[in-house]
């Protein structure tokens, strides 16, 4: 079975016309790969267009404020990608004189870049023979070869990486890498792949054993935690509110949110009223409390589910240090907060 030749032939017919496929500029390829981590092409494409328009060079990205980068990233999730992207841009400009590193071993040193991203950039931009191994590749190879080694183990990664190294086209590493990624994304899909038109349907071990959906094998992850978030939306008589910047480590680091009250279970009015006594901006002030959403909004993250309520505090006073309501849209916020701001009639 000549998987290498067949993959490249399949790709020549079925590849999508995507903007990052019309360039070998490492800045653009890097940008696209970071955006497409944990993100499907349909969702990531508009962000790629926005970023390349706003920051057409690594110098433009490096001199931007982090808040600008996070705001442009808003809605994509996994915000550490944006923070790492910005940090690496500054590193490239300040430490490498704006010259993008041109080998796998140097590219992987960039913050937020792992084996897959480094391999993609090195092969596509610099023709280095280094295979990509991502979710699409795991799925395609595990099904074709019937590999049951769990992909989320170091043993599994090494096994698939070694197999990919035997398959990569030494003359066209960029084409091969893009072909196998595209094949996993469009043909060998996670659910309901059309095996009737697959070029490997006569050799695919998973298909022959009728076990397509059992591959790739993955060890069970830890149980998802439930958290109960109560955001306090303060509205003053002078049309101001309060936002807080999230400090410390975490997926929402350096993003803004309304003041947060976290509880061990679904909170009621009495509990929230009691917690509001700790709010210095409300001390000795008259206000009313109302619940915006009777049904909790469940925001699902990879490791936790946030059961969320928004509580509206209407203040019969001014907020000298507050943020003008009409400036809310200027702040980078988690998509959970962004959706509320869009829906709420300020």
TrEMBL record:
Cofactor(s) needed for function: [4Fe-4S] cluster
InterPro entries: A/G_AdeGlyc_MutY, DNA_glycosylase, HhH-GPD_domain, HhH_base_excis_C, HhH_motif, MIG/MutY, MutY_C, NUDIX_hydrolase-like_dom_sf
Presence of keyword Iron: yes
UniProt keyword terms in alphabetical order: 4Fe-4S, DNA damage, DNA repair, Glycosidase, Hydrolase, Iron, Iron-sulfur, Metal-binding
A biological process from GO: base-excision repair
SMART domains the UniProt entry points to: ENDO3c
GO molecular function, one term: 4 iron, 4 sulfur cluster binding
Listed Pfam families: HHH (PF00633), HhH-GPD (PF00730), NUDIX_4 (PF14815)
Stored SUPFAM superfamilies: DNA-glycosylase, Nudix
Tree of life domain: Bacteria
Function: Adenine glycosylase active on G-A mispairs. MutY also corrects error-prone DNA synthesis past GO lesions which are due to the oxidatively damaged form of guanine: 7,8-dihydro-8-oxoguanine (8-oxo-dGTP).
PANTHER family: ADENINE DNA GLYCOSYLASE
Name listed for the protein in its UniProt record: Adenine DNA glycosylase
